[in-house]
Amino acid sequence: MNSYKCVTAYEGTRYNGWQKQGNTANTIQCKLEETLSKMIGEPIEITASGRTDAGVHALGQVFHFHCSVELLKDDDGIIFLTEINNFLPKDIRLLNIESCSSRFHARLNAVKKTYQYRIDTSTYGNLFLRNTAHHIASPMDISAIKNGASLLLGTHDFKSFCSNKRLKKSSIRTIYDIHIEEDKSNNLLLFTFTGNGFLYNMVRILSGTLIEIGLGLRTPEQIPAILEGCDRALSGHTAPAKGLFLLHVFY
Amino acid sequence: MNSYKCVTAYEGTRYNGWQKQGNTANTIQCKLEETLSKMIGEPIEITASGRTDAGVHALGQVFHFHCSVELLKDDDGIIFLTEINNFLPKDIRLLNIESCSSRFHARLNAVKKTYQYRIDTSTYGNLFLRNTAHHIASPMDISAIKNGASLLLGTHDFKSFCSNKRLKKSSIRTIYDIHIEEDKSNNLLLFTFTGNGFLYNMVRILSGTLIEIGLGLRTPEQIPAILEGCDRALSGHTAPAKGLFLLHVFY
């Protein structure tokens, strides 16, 4: 049995998210499994670092799979990648493939993830970012956002920032870094979150809360009470999926 | 009667080009006329600086129109633009509107235009540029392209770079500048053409010819003979529409 670790990038717009679902083949996992199975000639099941919601994008999603065929015998991956990218839909790309230990697990072995939330701050909306950024024309207070972000750093119970009400496992996570960056030449505001793991919708609720701080609807000083309250009703709205990118998974 | 000059940006992917056509309402001109007519309450016809082909994009297309209503009475354009952009499809934006002389004509008064051709040089194709750049993974000789471009500058008969075989008017045009730029951090190669006017498909054939020079299929030294020959068969292929942007129209 051979094991492979892959990196994929995709635009989530057209898909019902990452995860294979009973009633639809229109997920990114399905498209990748279909194409890999055809190319390799046996049914392939893949396991990702985590699911992404409908409309969410990835530049560096990681998954693993096993197969009986040795895929990279006389190939450093270039031939395989060129061929599979010819068969994949244009909005899903396979960027890397490498052999890995049969014990490597894309989800269980992930130690750190980076997500980015992109906001288009142009006046009428950049039409070329209509599916890949959240458009907010109203001016935002960047230093307030930075203050709010700094209060989210560290290890907390992030229950207030999780959409899953029936979460049975721990909702304690550590955020190592939140980088708030203005790209003025492209009218972009970027929130980049790095942490040891993120709960369901957590990055989108963190982003929605920071946006509300930027718009003056909340103050940064409310963050500690939101965290302590452990109640989804205390935090901000879930920012739209189309602004969210999974950038990198660390092992 | 009131006259207005407008600037619009659009992604051409979903449309059958700029120009209104008998059998389809799916053109950018139609969408703008429909929306303007509804907003203003009378039938509006618009005249652009020139048509763009199906799949070609614009960041700064200019058009003019006349109407009986005074649109910008207590408005510097912001209110009008905000409202119309709410009604327009997300891949068409109106960026500016201003009053102009009733004698202003977007096509006849244009003295200079800038077009850009974008090539995605990434290995497997940047999925976020799949509709807005032409993907070429093979390495290209940039200095050969620059040499070829320099031989295209100035005033020439560009008949060899025109798809319209039955052109009755003059095919003499002046190219003031061709800027060849590598944006290595985004894996882009950009050709930016500024001239007093461009024939049908001219920028795409110029780009196709420069691409063939870059790939070593032609030499820069062939350019003078291609120009002198005045024969479409001598020049390169018509590069795909999706890489082309109308950037700016000068008056």
How would you characterize the overall build of this protein?
The structure is a homodimer of 251-residue chains. Chain A is an alpha+beta fold and 251 residues long. In chain A, 21% of the residues lie in helices and 29% in strands. In chain A, strands 1, 2, 3, 4, 5, 6, 7, 8, 9 and 10 form a 10-stranded mixed beta sheet that branches. In chain A, strand 2 and strand 3 (57-67) form a beta hairpin. The longest helix of chain A is centred in the N-terminal third of the chain and has 13 residues, at 28-40. Chain A is globular and about 55 Å long. The two termini of chain A are 22 Å apart. At the A-B interface, helix 2 and strand 4 of A face helix 2 and strand 4 of B.
Largest binding interface between chains: A-B, 19 and 19 residues
Overall SS class of chain A: alpha+beta
Tally of helical segments of chain A: 5
Shape call of chain A = globular
- Please provide the count of β strands of chain A: 10
The biggest beta sheet of chain A is recorded as: 10 strands, mixed
Mean pLDDT of chain A: 95
Uncertain segments of chain A are: none
How would you briefly describe this protein structure?
With 251 residues, the first copy, chain A, is an alpha+beta fold. Chain A has 5 helices and 10 strands, in the order βαββαβββαβββααβ.
Feature tags:
21% helix, alpha+beta, 5 helices, 10-stranded mixed beta sheet, 251 residues, homodimer
Topology:
The structure is a homodimer of 251-residue chains.
Chain A: E1 2-10, H1 28-40, E2 47-48, E3 57-67, H2 78-87, E4 92-99, E5 112-120, E6 134-135, H3 142-150, E7 154-157, E8 172-183, E9 188-195, H4 202-214, H5 223-229, E10 244-250
Parallel strand pairs in A: 3-10, 5-6
Antiparallel strand pairs in A: 1-3, 1-4, 2-3, 5-9, 5-10, 7-8, 8-9
Helix pairs in contact in A: 3-4
